[in-house]
Request: fold
Amino acid sequence: MKTLVEFIAEKQSEFPYATGELTRLLNDIGIAAKLVNREVNKAGLVDINGYFGQQNIQGEEQKKLDVFANECFLKAMKHGGMVCAVASEENDEIYTYENAVSKSGKYVVAMDPLDGSSNIEVNVPIGTIFSIYRRKSSSGAGNLEDLLQCGKDQVAAGYIIYGSSTMLVYTTGHGVNGFTLDLSVGIFLLSHPEMTFPEGGNIYSINEANYIYFQEGVKQYIKYCQQDDPATNRPYTTRYIGSLVSDFHRNLIRGGIYIYPGTFKNPHGKLRLLYECNPVAFLAEQAGGKASTGFERILDIQPSHIHQRVPFFVGTKHMVEKAEEFMREYSPENK
Ligand code: AMP
Ligand code: P6P
Reply:
């Protein structure tokens, strides 16, 4: 089986003018993933589960593993000097490197270092999500404009899922490939080449505890999923892990839709555009799927701030399109 390092090098050779900086960055992310994986796997054994006592901008308790993962990826990306700025869920403001070599780095990264971390102590799979752009500024420390780019301009995006096995799944705009970590030798191996959503799809993932706060279009789509119609493979099955990377990964392999919609309480939903929705949307489209707010393509949205939230519908194309039909039909503007 091809290793991640071999695969990345092979892809670079398709770009004769490439300097190797993206290759180095992707490999450094792979190294950080292995270090985080080691700590995640022993989370139950050492006092790494405990709350760190600080809160991130989301007002969520930062668990030690969140902080460790954030520091791990920040250090790994400093190491190679290809990154001049980072937007992280764990940092209120953008993070810029002080070392000279990073100031000339040509990439910026948006990341959620440990998404779903509330699941750590209950042993539910969690994940890292990353998104890579070319900087827009010419030199010096990266700035906000470098990070507030439309998702359609991503150079690469991916996630690591720390589950029953640890996988790194990523795209650079030429398909989606998945690599499984062989713990016996500490190497990511190409286990899932050219990942695409399967034709069908009958899984819907949404936190129905919020049902009374959902817009009518979401409620009607949920009812559609629950109707008995064997011709369209309904009723669907509901699966909701509470960890975006895990729900998306399962839906990518089995077919399905993940929805975190806006509600009357939180019209923009919960998920962050820069480091959750954009990277997952890039992967979804590269795998033949679709990602929208229920109305607008995620990758077309011009971000306004680094922790901006947007409603998120992502997964099998025909399932997202059906949900969008209900959103349009029952939209207040349609009355
Ligand atoms: P670089 O000069 O190494 O930063 O690469 C320049 C551009 O070539 C990147 O922004 C990508 O669009 C493409 N490229 C370089 N290396 C790779 C790779 N390993 N995989 C996919 N695309 C690559
Ligand atoms: P809720 C984790 O906090 C996360 O950002 C996603 O990974 C997950 O899908 C969602 O929030 C879960 O949110 O409100 O359903 O618990």
Observations:
- The longest helix spans residues 21-41.
- Residues 115-116, 118, 207, 242-244, 247, 270-271 surround 6-O-phosphono-alpha-D-fructofuranose (ligand 2) (CB under 6 Å).
